[in-house]
Amino acid sequence: MSRLVIVSNRVAPITEGKPTAGGLAIGVYEALKDTGGMWFGWNGEIDAEPATVPEIAHRNNVTFATVPLTRRDYNTYYRGFSNATLWPTFHYRDDLTRYQRDDYNGYRHVNARFAALLAPLLEHDDLIWVHDYHLLPFAQACRQIGVQQRLGFFLHIPFPSPQVLMTVPPHEALVRAMCEYDLVGFQTETDRTAFTDYLVRHAGATLHDDGTVTAFGRTLRTGVYPIGVYPDEIAQQATARATVKHILDLKQGLQDRKLIMSVDRLDYSKGMLERFRAFERLLELWPNQQGTVSFVQVAPPSRSDVAGYGEIRQQLETEAGHINGRFSDLAWTPLRYINKRYAHEVLMSFFRASQVGYVTPLRDGMNLVAKEYVASQDPADPGVLVLSCFAGAAQELDGALIVNPYDIDGMAEALRTALNMSLSERQTRHASMMATLREHNLSTWRNRFIADLRPPTTAAKPALLRTQPAAASVDG
């Protein structure tokens, strides 16, 4: 069987049960460790000189091949084009986009360097699975140095509509580079349609009935592969830490009040400011909720040196202070805004202790937090998920209360509905969503993508199914 080689911007140190770099890192590791193979990417370190060979380490049946970045590469490739240009644009925040040609040149340079460092490690029949927006031109860089192995790409974040994408000056070069992959996968049909719509409208592409598309002289396959979690493993985690001090402190502080729970990376795409304002509106419109419910927002800091992140933190701190100043009394603080990391199992226990999961991003590729919230619940007395219509998960989790995060009153009404929902309705909604999570778990995501990436003559071979699932992680 072909070896699986995964390439991502960051190869994070994985210690199960500990805080990690995010959902992509854990999702990739869980997808890889059952089949075995190699994981290649940046090790998170900054060195004065560029690497000449990757550092190799082995853990179980996974080979880790990692390289540092230089300070210049970090500033142009990572802070610059990846996170100051692509991230805001792909999340429909072109008002926050900053583009500089030097950043784009650095982005191309790092992709080319990654390709050159990986190439000597490859075997002739490897399947190469590349992840996320940092590496859009990676396949093109590989082809230019003679790499012929099958190359697949999966985008974890949204793909913007053509008119939004075109605000990035090198948009045509980026899409042309993406067409060097054999398979390009997305979280939702909306994202795939945005990609193929660009190809048809602006590259004269031809769409075929079998899901392939011909553009820029190549024929590639596109697909929709919604990433999942292992729900039964998460359910076990949610009960494993019930006596941990964090959980006991949380329950003591609640004093039998209902709990609304949110967990997000500190990022302007997560809609936390709108979420705070909707909670304030709940307390304003229904004064009987005052003193009966608490809202906990856990938001670990993220990309603090990227433009725009310091501002959103300041806005959230101001809004939290405003809400608490307006509604608090000596016995009750309505909103707890916490900027720290917790172990994954502790977060799952927080979810299980809550009556409402509040997941309202302004735009998100999937949002694994929504799925983890559902999986962590007690099926005998489950909480209610309030979920943004702009999260990819909204297309799968039909038992959630779907809201528009730009409608503050609508979100307040959904919170009130969730807090007062009957047990029988909560159980019915939860059971439906758990069935979906089990059917479309992380193994399904991996196996479907790998099967489609194989050469056409071997695509029908069954992929290895996971028999002992492990946990996914809170996603950002």
UniProtKB/TrEMBL annotation:
GO terms for biological process: trehalose biosynthetic process. It is an enzyme of class 2 (transferase). The keyword Transcription does not apply. It holds the Pfam family Glyco_transf_20. Pathway: Glycan biosynthesis; trehalose biosynthesis. It comes from the Bacteria. The keyword Glycosyltransferase applies. Its EC number is 2.4.1.15. Keywords: Glycosyltransferase, Transferase. Transmembrane segments: none annotated. One of its GO terms (molecular function) is alpha,alpha-trehalose-phosphate synthase (UDP-forming) activity. It catalyses: D-glucose 6-phosphate + UDP-alpha-D-glucose = alpha,alpha-trehalose 6-phosphate + UDP + H(+). Probably involved in the osmoprotection via the biosynthesis of trehalose. Catalyzes the transfer of glucose from UDP-alpha-D-glucose (UDP-Glc) to D-glucose 6-phosphate (Glc-6-P) to form trehalose-6-phosphate. Acts with retention of the anomeric configuration of the UDP-sugar donor. Homotetramer. Belongs to the glycosyltransferase 20 family. NCBIfam families: trehalose_OtsA (TIGR02400). This is Trehalose-6-phosphate synthase. It comes from Pandoraea cepalis. The gene is otsA.
